[in-house]
Amino acid sequence: MIVTIKPSRLKGNIQAPASKSSMQRACAAALLRKGTTIINNAGHSNDDKAALGIIKALGAKINKDGNSVIVTSNGLQPVSSTIDCGESGLSIRMFTPLVALSGEEITITGSGSLVTRPMDVFDEIFPTLGVSIQTQDGKLPLIVQGPLLPADIEVDGSLSSQFLTGLLMAYGAYPYIDAGGKDTEVILKASIIVHDLKSRPYIDLTLDVMKKFGFVTPTNNNYEEFIFDYTETQSEHPRIEMEVNYIVEGDWSGGAFLLVAGAIAGSILVSGLDVNSTQADKKILDALMAANAGLAIEAKGIRLVPGEMIAFDFDATDCPDLFPPLVALAAYCKGSTKIKGVGRLIHKESNRALTLQDEFDKMGVTIDIDGDTMIIHGGKVVKGADVHSQHDHRIAMACAVAALGADSEMVIEEAQAVNKSYPDFYSHLENLGAGVSLNNKLSWHE
Questions:
Q1: Tens of pLDDT, residues 73-93
Q2: In degrees rounded to 5, what are phi and psi of residue 401?
Q3: Is residue 256 predicted with pLDDT exceeding 70?
Q4: Residue 205 and residue 284 share a domain
Q5: Is residue 427 part of a domain?
Q6: How far apart are CA 108 and CA 64, in angstroms?
Q7: Would 135 be classed as within a structural domain?
Q8: How far is the C-alpha of 417 from the C-alpha of 445, rounded, in Å?
Q9: I want to staple 402 with a disulfide (CB 3.0 to 4.6 A). Which of 98, 150, 304, 328 is the partner?
């Protein structure tokens, strides 16, 4: 799909999309506990759909009621020998340890860039937990057979927090899972030691979901060790069979693009973003303030108005998904913006550092990479150009936002990549007054 974005002035109010990070964790938790879960403000991105498909294959029953999803589960009871994670990096890393709680052999597949991402961390950890694991030289497909038995392990947290999320949820749900052979084991305590953890806010989100769903929550020793004490759970199985009403947060990752769009071409009001959220990408507010953007936090939402903006320094090590909207923002900031954390961009839907460099170069925006730091030379005229998403949802959105203040229209190829996380993105821009057109009159959700 090709989308053309014209230079535009934006005006109006918009609701931020649902957080796929929150939605996918809620899906996993709803599967592992017994009973009914009502997930409100449910997302409908491709990653959200992948998570729902996974829990259905693992035994959950799903019904939709307007903007809510009702999940009924009797625990982890696979009805399929294969699960498909689509292109979701969170799903593959989070659900694999959860699948391993089962005693059944399960094949885990994916598509797109996911098939090239390294999964060898499973090869290193799973044997320690009593889990058989087969990979294709550290890549998909994975063949897993448990049951997983919590043990004292050490994990490298420098590449991604997503695998740790899966382990934490697996350890937390362990006492309530019925898996073949597990009843012969008596495990009273287990700890996960983590080295050089990145993206701590995502772990905060995981722990919050675990608490709300009644899982065993660990003692957190400064994110360096998580200690699970099972001595008080042996007779408390029924407590996880409660009904849960869970509200999916507004998505700061997708909302960041709306906020930057407002700073470039507003004024707009973005609602649905909790300023007290644990989401890592809430730090976009810090970047906007550092750039001297026209920003005000009001009772009904966050208001953005355009104005003179200046270059800023920002550490995105713990929030690497902010790089694309930050680059779009920096393109309109006078001077050279420095963003730290480039090393976190290699294993995304694309190598985002190089992709951002290539696509923004077409717009006349020079980007240098110096070790772990990206330097964006902004403040000059952003040129309209023919750009390519490189099948990366955040690159497509960054290019669209950059187009709003450009000197001519921006043509984005493979623009449907946004469906991975924010399928309503182009229609939301259009609702705010942006000039948006699609080729062949295709739907927004192609």
A1: 999 999 999 999 999 999 999
A2: -65, -40
A3: yes
A4: no
A5: yes
A6: 26
A7: yes
A8: 10
A9: 328
Domain match, 154 and 276 both? no
Catalytic residue (choose from 251, 321, 392, 424): 321
Residue 212 and residue 261 in one domain: no
The tally of domains found in the chain comes to 2
Q: Which one is predicted more confidently, 345 or 366?
A: 366
| Same domain assignment for residues 35 and 152 | yes
Q: What is the CATH number of the domain that holds 66?
A: 3.65.10.10
From 217, 207, 257, 238, select the one nearest 393 (Cα to Cα).
257
Token pair, residue 436, equals: 């948006």
Domain that includes residue 354, residue range:
3-17+250-441
Q: What is the pLDDT of residue 345?
A: 87
Name residue 315's amino acid: D
DSSP 3-state of 345: helix
Q: Does residue 412 have a pLDDT over 80?
A: yes
- Under 8 Å between Cβ of 97 and 170: yes
The answer to whether residue 111 is domain-embedded is yes
pLDDT at 138: 84
pLDDT of 237: 46
pLDDT higher than 80, residue 239: no
**Digit-coded pLDDT (tens) for 172-216:** 999 988 765 555 567 899 999 999 998 899 999 999 999 999 999
DSSP state of 18: B
Give domain status of residue 89, yes or no.
Answer: yes
DSSP code of residue 194: E
Phi, then psi, of 406 in degrees rounded to 5:
-75, 170
pTM score: 0.92
Q: What pairs with residue 368 in β-bridges?
A: 375
Last residue of a domain, one of 195, 219, 239: 239
Please confirm, yes or no, whether 47 is among the known catalytic residues: no
Same domain, 341 and 232: no
CB of 306 closer than 8 Å to CB of 294 = yes
Quote the crossing angle between the two packed helices 393-403 and 323-330, to the nearest 10°.
20
Boundary-marking domain end, from 239, 269, 300: 239
